[in-house]
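Schema walk-through. Below, the input block comes first and the output block second. Nothing else is stored per chain. Lengths vary across the set, and this one has 164 residues.
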Amino acid sequence: MRIGELAGRAGVSTRTLRYYEQQGLLSARRAANGYRQYEESDVRLVTEIRSLLAAGFTLEDARPFVDCLRAGHSDGAACPESVAVYQRKLAEIDADIRTLIRRRADVADQLARACPGCLLSQEKTNDHTDGGELRRPRAPRRQAGTGRILGGLVPSLQNDRADP
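--- output ---
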């Protein structure tokens, strides 16, 4: 298939496909007329790359997933290198969450010192877009252990301090 068809089927621009090719994530044969020719499997590669980018991964993070698909696996996450990327990314996200929780606590402390009567209850100040569902006061807490990601291959966040 030509570049325009691949772009349409994968929901990306032709410029994006050329960029992926430049980065070594996608390869095209050249027809006699010089046009790029792609395989049916390239739709899956581009879809995998887009999915990973949407989840916050970088193009470099996507490389092991693409290599895994090129090796003939039906899932880009089937290879140990891909699982390692998931584990590293999850650790980064967990670290970011811990940092944000500490930062929020610091700001709440500063507000309490600046305006002792201004600090509202935790429930009233929780204006996160999750509707407060990240921490339900009466919801039972799961035991630390394996998470649901990748069928339990990726461990869940270990709470290294008490809830703020």
